[in-house]
Write a structure and sequence with these properties.
Strands 4, 13, 14, 15, 16, 17, 18, 19 and 20 form a 9-stranded mixed β-sheet that branches. An 8-stranded parallel barrel has the order 5-6-7-8-9-10-11-12, surrounded by 4 helices. Strands 1-2-3 form a 3-stranded antiparallel β-sheet. The chain has 12 helices and 20 strands. The protein is α/β, with parallel strands linked by helices and 414 residues long. The chain is 29% helix and 25% strand. The radius of gyration is 23 Å and the shape is globular.
Length: 414
């Protein structure tokens, strides 16, 4: 259950009519359900109750500090990939010892900030990065805990843009180089190699790629022990998919059972980095129909949201279910739902069968809680959307809509 449901033809977010949110906050607006966040985190966390584990929510999926605070209060750690995400996590009250830092391009400044915050560990992705972390720790007079991201060359059977664990991807280290990296880290003065990291991609809809990668990583774990390198953490990343259209991804309980069976006898703390599976179905994007337009070959529904608000359809060809906020009985037609960006790729849906909506009616794109607001932009000098968090009968504005002044705030005076 994702706590967005229709009652007598009217869409509700928990106990609040979405039409009321639109009246209060306008469009386009992201609307999130706190109950859905809690339910999804609990379902994921409890699936690994049989193992020592830490669930580190992937900040990149939805980084609003109110969301991070909500999850942190439930015991979540976070997975970050930038200094900005570190800043957000700390502002939200996430303790340093529950933060893991991934990403291929960590700068000296970012590494030092993370060391000062006392993070749990860096997931290092190159030999150069290992040396940079050692040097930064030496400058600060501390020891840095690291794991190395192993690239297991496993096909995750997902969109190529969100595949991260194959030889051709920029992420991680191949097995031979990683072994060299662990020896290098072991012998450095300021590093403690404490874990192994592996992340193969996003929106995975079967367990087989996870288990194939795990088998390879466990083989690598044995090689480390043979070298006298004993790690405490096994970070298997995230990537478990959700249902956008007709996908049938495995439930967290099945994922947990499969990993527990393989890891129950090993002296390792499992680290997981779920993002989409926690927040994807916890949010919708609500927008208004501005015009409808009939050409000789196509009908367009033109709305006040665009690819700068929700880029996934344009970037990946992704599907988001779109429905009216207030349903009426009317004929169905085939349309493109498009925004006002000056790009032909600016669409939220193509050749979609939908009720014949009229200007002034609001629509909702479902499953928009992940990689929606975090990937939004000000392209065409469009103001980014508002964000509202609903908790029972309470609606809270957690990010105001940008103003025109916000668009130029960081630019130097004329």
């Amino acid at each position: 259950m994702n706590h967005f449901e229709y009652r007598d033809g009217h869409l509700f977010a928990e106990e609040v009519p979405v039409a009321d949110i639109v009246r209060h906050h306008g469009t386009p607006t992201y609307v999130y359900s706190a109950a859905t966040f809690r339910r999804h985190f609990q379902a994921f966390d409890s699936a690994f109750a049989g193992l020592p584990h830490l669930v580190c929510y992937s900040v990149k999926a939805n980084s609003n500090i109110h969301i991070l605070k909500l999850l942190g209060e439930m015991g979540a750690g976070v997975d970050i990939v930038s200094g900005g995400e570190l800043f957000r996590a700390l502002k939200a009250g996430i303790p340093g010892e529950k933060i893991v830092y991934s990403g291929v391009a960590k700068t000296d400044e970012e590494i030092e900030d993370a060391l000062r915050a006392g993070i749990l560990m860096f997931n290092a992705e190159s030999l150069g990065e290992i040396a940079a972390i050692d040097a930064a720790a030496g400058r600060l007079g501390v020891r840095a805990r690291i794991s190395l991201r192993i690239n297991p060359d496993v096909d995750p059977k997902t969109h190529p843009y969100i595949s991260t664990g194959m030889k051709k991807n920029k992420f991680g280290l191949d097995m031979d180089t990683a072994l060299q990296g662990y020896i290098m880290a072991r012998d450095m003065k300021n590093l403690d190699p404490v874990g192994i990291d592996c992340h193969i991609g996003s929106q995975l809809t079967t367990l087989e790629p996870f288990l194939e990668a795990l088998d390879k990583v466990l083989g690598f774990y044995g090689k480390l022990k043979d070298l006298g390198i004993y790690v405490n953490y096994l970070d298997l990343g995230g990537g478990l998919g959700i249902t956008y259209d007709e996908e049938e991804p495995p439930q967290p309980s099945a994922f947990g059972a499969a990993l527990t069976e393989r890891l129950k006898d090993l002296p390792l703390t499992l680290v997981l980095e779920p993002g989409r599976v926690i927040c994807g179905n916890a949010g919708i994007l609500v927008f208004n129909t501005v015009y409808t337009k009939q050409t000789p070959v196509k009908k367009f529904v033109i709305v006040d949201a665009a690819m700068n608000d929700l880029v996934r359809p344009s970037l990946y060809g992704s599907y988001h279910r779109i429905e009216e906020v207030d349903k009426k009985s009317r004929p169905v037609e085939t349309v493109d739902v498009v925004g006002g960006i000056c790009e032909s790729t600016d669409f939220l849906a193509r050749d979609r069968e939908m009720p014949a909506v009229e200007p002034g009616e609001c629509l909702a794109a479902f499953s928009a809680g992940a990689y929606g607001m975090t990937m939004s932009s000000q392209y065409n000098s469009r103001r980014r959307a508002a964000e509202v968090l609903v908790d029972g009968r309470e609606e809270k504005l957690i990010r105001r809509r940008e103003t025109y002044e916000d668009l130029i705030e960081a630019e130097l005076d004329l």
